[in-house]
Amino acid sequence: MSTLYLLPTPLGDDEKVWLLPHDLEKIRHIQYFVVEAEKTARRHLKLLNLDTPLQQLHLSRLDEHSKLDSLPEILSPLLQGHDMALMSEAGCPAVADPGATLVALAHRHNIDIVPLVGASSLLLALMASGANGQRFAFQGYLPADSDGRKTSLRQLEKKALAGESQIFIETPYRNDVMLADILSTLHRETHLCVASDLLQQTQSIISATIGDWHAKPLPNLKKRPTVFIIY
Amino acid sequence: MSTLYLLPTPLGDDEKVWLLPHDLEKIRHIQYFVVEAEKTARRHLKLLNLDTPLQQLHLSRLDEHSKLDSLPEILSPLLQGHDMALMSEAGCPAVADPGATLVALAHRHNIDIVPLVGASSLLLALMASGANGQRFAFQGYLPADSDGRKTSLRQLEKKALAGESQIFIETPYRNDVMLADILSTLHRETHLCVASDLLQQTQSIISATIGDWHAKPLPNLKKRPTVFIIY
Asked: Quick one: which of B133, B3, B32, B101 has its CA closest to A123?
């Protein structure tokens, strides 16, 4: 019986091996990979020093432009008895990326799914925020227009005040606008954590009430992958 | 400036080192630890082979019985210039455990918070479920009485059908009752993932529609740490 491994990738451009040694041993033999972008996947795989030379690995692409009817072909090596590994562009696969559709199909074929330990920016941000993690929600991206974003922020604040910490992300070039909208929209007593460049040299994690945020110099978030948490 | 490291622990009784090699190097020098239970913490720390002999490490307890007014004393080594590490009983600290209160206090003292990569049963289950991870919520424990649990399950099913995958846990001795209530309460088309003993030899991850669950032999979940996901 073949296995679909869920293989995390590094959050940034780190040159260090990002897998636990015993997990790396589990996947050294794999020749079939499902990836979001071939170029970054090959750069990551190069560091792992697998049993098979890099040029002989089989990489299938699964990204936001992939069509659902391409999934059976992507999955077919598993049905032919080959182990496979699913990788996302950064962090843990099948969370906030198209990989979940492949995992769902694998379950329908009763294929063993084995998730490996890796970095998740959402989870690292939640750990480091000081927010109550007993209940939390990840909301993905909020609306891109200012009115929609502010309406959404007010709804999330209500949920946060009811005890469910609210996690969301923004495309990096709009991070500064998001931060400005949060600070102008939410109440002074609400807490905001802004976690940027997680696991990078430039990592910064700031968590404070909106009132305290108003008294601080604001960080420059431009182009820095950032997780926002309201609690 | 001292640093509060957030130090994950293994999910089970594994004897393997569960930290990335470069993260282990960051914490070898630490002498002050905040732990949920001293006995398991010492067992975990023994495996790490730190610079300081095990018996000379300073362990402070922070658990569900701790009082908020004990937090400043627990935090005090950080203010005196010592690095500290916060550990939970299993998995990632400060998510669904009392550690978040200490992290929040550390932020108020402008102490650097550094989360380290580790295993989270919630995240591993979500990755392996096939559920849409673009939006999800962790609900902690549902009500323990059958009526309350079923009402709660129906509410979570509505949220799941609206696109927000719903993650929750149960105390292990009630897992089988929870599974029976889920199968008798939710619609046949709704999806359920049951992920048990994650990262252990006995790991099992089953994900299917409620209708398909009815056609399967049910797993024995008694005393097995389990994550439930409705989507």
From this structure: B133
Q: What is the number of domains present in chain B?
A: 2
Range of the domain at A225: 121-230
Q: A interface mutation test: which of B7, B11, B117 has the most A CBs within 10 A?
A: B117
B130 closest CB neighbour out of A16, A17, A100:
A100
For residue A134, give how far its alpha carbon lies from the nearest alpha carbon of chain B (Å): 4
User: Which of B16, B123, B135 should we substitute to test contact with A (largest number of A Cβ atoms within 10 Å)?
Assistant: B123
**Averaged pLDDT for residues A212-226:** 95
Comparing alpha-carbon positions, the chain A residue that sits nearest to B139 is A135
Q: Looking at A80, A95, A115, which one is the last position of a domain?
A: A115
The DSSP secondary structure of B132-183, one letter per residue, reads: --SSEEEEEEPPSSHHHHHHHHHHHHHHHHTT-EEEEE--GGGHHHHHHHHH
- Radius of gyration of chain A measured on its C-alpha atoms: 20
CATH number, residue A41: 3.40.1010.10
How far away is chain A from the Cα of B59, in angstroms, using its nearest Cα?
Answer: 20
Last residue of one domain, picked from the residues B97, B115, B133: B115
Inter-chain CB proximity A130 and B106 less than 8 Å: yes
Q: Does the beta-carbon distance from B130 to A104 stay under 8 Å?
A: yes
Q: What is the mean pLDDT of chain A?
A: 95
Contacts of B17 in chain A (CB under 8 A): 20-21
Across the interface, whether the CB atoms of A135 and B140 are under 8 A apart is answered yes
* Rounded CA separation B173/A141 (Å): 38
> Has residue B10 got a pLDDT over 70?
yes
Distance in Å, alpha carbon of B7 to nearest chain A alpha carbon? 10
* B11 & B98 share domain: yes
User: In chain A, what residues touch B208 (CB-CB under 8 Å)?
Assistant: 107-108
Q: Name the token pair of B225.
A: 């740490």
Based on the domain organization, do B39 and B91 belong to the same domain? yes
Shared-domain flag, residues B36 and B100: yes
Q: Are residues A16 and A49 in the same domain?
A: yes
Verify that B136 and B59 share a domain, yes or no.
Answer: no
Residue with tokens 């601080």: A216
What is the predicted ipTM? 0.95
Do A189 and A139 lie in one domain? The reply is yes
Co-location of A75 and A144 in the same domain: no
- Per-residue pLDDT tens for A5-24? 999 999 977 667 889 999 99
H helix intervals, chain A: 21-27, 38-48, 71-79, 99-108, 121-129, 146-161, 175-185, 210-214
- Do B109 and B82 belong together in one domain? yes
B112 pLDDT higher than 80: yes
